[in-house]
Amino acid sequence: MASDLKFGTVEEMWFEGNLTTVVATIRGGSSLWLTSDVLPVGRLSHEARALRPIIEDLIEV
Length: 61
Fold this sequence. Notes:
Layout: E1 12-16, E2 20-26, E3 30-36, H1 41-59
Antiparallel strand pairs: 1-2, 2-3
């Protein structure tokens, strides 16, 4: 949908409800999902950005 609307690429999405979930893209077409029932979306977003290069190196995407 983002490409059809010419928004560019989607690097991160978040969902809030009973849990907060942040989904961040990583190399190779994969995604990193972080979920918490305590942490706010801003903190999860920060953690996703911090963890992205580490996870990419671990799975050698």
